[in-house]
Amino acid sequence: MTVSHDTGASHFNVSTFPRFNDSTLARWVCLLIAALTLLCYWPVRSHQFVSFDDDHYLFDSGYVSKGLTWSGVTWALQTGYFSNWHPLTWLSYMLDAQIYGMSPGGFHVTNLLFHISNSLLLFLLLKSMTQRLWPSALVAALFAWHPLHVESVAWVSERKDVLSTFFFLLTLFSYFGYVKEREISRPVPNKASSYYLLSLLFFMLALASKQMVVTLPCVLLLLDLWPLQRISLNSSRKELASSALLLVREKLPFFVLAFAASAVAFAVQKASGSVSSMEAISMRFRLANSLFAYVAYISNTFWPANLAAVYPLSSHFPLIGVIAAAMFLGAVSAFVVFRIKQDPFLLVGWVWFIGTLVPVIGLIQVGSQARADRYMYIPAIGLCIALI
Q1: 120: which residues sit within 8 A by CB, 6+ positions away?
Q2: What is the enclosing helix (H) or strand (E) of 344?
Q3: Structure confidence at residue 15 (pLDDT)
Q4: Among candidates 208, 213, 200, which has minimal Cα distance to 85?
Q5: Angstrom distance (rounded) from CA 378 to CA 318
Q6: I need a labelling partner for 254 at 20 to 30 A (CA). Which of 106, 136, 206, 248 fits?
């Protein structure tokens, strides 16, 4: 369209203005998220190690500081040192030591690069699955810049958070490729999908970084509901149950891996004396702490004030507070179930948040903390999805 002025002295053509398609905008969004995340966290390059776990992870083991060696690799695969089995995390530390020496800045920058990668992966994953650019960008931006994630990014000892989430998101990406492959063509009998096998590989790498990701098979089932819509909520109960059963059966290898990793993690932590007995902390006390922790995590997501490195277990939980927390969580759960047909993303986001916190919510009490900011690195994605 051409617009002319009466003077005849000038003409401009609206068609000459730049027009951006989704792919171009997505690239600009990625650049913006990466740049602002780098700017937010850039001071970590001059941070030092801290005496809170960094000394145990990087120096006391006797292997990390030597860089990548065959003896170090063997040790990483076998050890339950410091109450954890996460060989890939140990190997990433060794690789940093090989590249940077024991310079703190290099270790911090690696954490930051993984966090930037995770933020971009989350954006591209949601955009690919939902075909909605700006909501996906907002979720990724909240994930990238939220203060609750500072502990996971700016603390070298929490490399396992950013590393496991990197492979967690790659697993979801590969699974999405598998679902698209099934939609395009009927699966060939007795032929395994390369995308499916790739997703299993990435899941194994995520588990080898941190076992908190054991809930990933359940996240896949949530994605089947929304946004992949592999479950039709308008079906009859019989059809719905049949579809759900098939999808659960499809995830059996993932559940087997998750169960095996959970057993290893529990055995290592129990052997080190990190798991509290029922005599020391009763189940009633654990349930009360779990309810308060869920509410605290939600509160800190919306108002991230007074964050701390350690939240000690309380010695007492008032009954009225426990009841109020239970009623709040129950009310939100009832609401998202009620809205499932109109807004399935509410249920998916809420259950993502509730479910991915289960391994660390305190029902199996490991350590003396009531909760920790680092535990929200993956669960916060669910709250952001529901909110945005």
Answers
A1: 30, 33, 34, 140
A2: helix 344-356
A3: 52
A4: 208
A5: 30
A6: 136
* Cβ neighbourhood burial of 136 (10 Å; 0-12, 13-18, 19+): buried
Per the DSSP assignment, residues forming a β-bridge with 338 are none
Burial of 161 (0-12, 13-18, 19+ CB in 10 A): buried
What span, in angstroms and rounded, lies between the C-alpha atoms of 89 and 264? 16
Among 68, 43, 52, 33, residue whose Cα is nearest residue 158: 52
Q: Is 369 helix (H, G, I), strand (E, B) or coil?
A: strand
Q: Output 357 or 190, whichever has higher pLDDT.
A: 357
159 — pLDDT class (breaks 50, 70, 90): very high
Task: Assign 3-state DSSP to the chain and report helix, strand, coil percentages, each to 5.
Answer: 70, 5, 25
- What residues pair up with 312 in beta bridges, in sequence order? 369
Q: What is the pLDDT of residues 162-202, one digit of tens each?
A: 999 999 999 999 999 999 998 887 666 556 689 999 999 99
pLDDT over 80 (residue 232) = yes
Phi, psi of 343 (to 5 degrees): -135, 75
Angle between the N-to-C axes of helices 283-302 and 379-387, in degrees from 0 to 180, rounded to the nearest 10: 50
Number of H helices, E strands in the chain: 16, 4
End-to-end Cα separation, the chain, in angstroms: 37
pLDDT in tens, 200-209: 999 999 999 9
Q: Assess contact for 57 and 93: CB atoms under 8 A.
A: yes
Q: DSSP letters along 41-107, please?
A: HGGGGGPPP-TTTHHIIIIITSSGGG-S-HHHHHHHHH--GGG---HHHHHHHHHHHHHHTT-HHHH
What is the spatial distance between Cα 7 and Cα 15, in angstroms, rounded to a whole number? 21
**Residues recorded for the chain:** 388
Strands (E), 178-330: 311-312
pTM value surpassing 0.85: yes
Question: What tokens were used for 151?
Answer: 């502990």
Question: What would the mean pLDDT of 241-266 be, rounded to a whole number?
Answer: 95
CB contact at 8 A, 62 and 136: no
d(CA 59, CA 57): 6
